[in-house]
Amino acid sequence: MTKLPTGRHTQAMKASRQSEKKRLRNKSYRSRVNTALKKINILIKEGNKDEALKILDETKMYVDKAVTKNIIHKNKAARLKSRMAKKLNSLS
User: Residue 1 to residues 6, 14, 25: CA-CA distances in angstroms?
Assistant: First the structure.
């Protein structure tokens, strides 16, 4: 394989393009999870248990989706879901 004028190989350039696509995809999933977690934490701080319960299922879905896409580790997902449930149960 011949070198390109920039001193890079074509496969290295292709790998760079692919990793950039994956980075952007992962960023969107990670952002979705973090936004959902922030929403539920705000509702818990306000003491709005009914609304938090509605959002809990949605948040768990986003977390599980991130696990299936190998964006976050399954143990981290379990920890996040456990902490959410614990906070919600602390509200009486």
Answer: 14, 14, 31
Report CA 38 to chain centroid distance, whole Å: 12
Q: Domains in the chain and their CATH numbers?
A: 10-90 (1.20.58.110)
Please tell me the pTM assigned to this model: 0.79
CA 37 vs. chain centroid, Å, equals 10
Lookup result for tokens 């399954």: 74
Residue 71, classed as helix, strand or coil, is: coil
Element spanning 49, H or E: helix 49-68
| Tokens encoding 53 | 């319960």
**Mean pLDDT over residues 7-36, rounded?**
90
**CA torsion angle 26 30 33 38 (round to 10):** -160
For 49, other C-beta atoms within 10 Å of its C-beta total 16
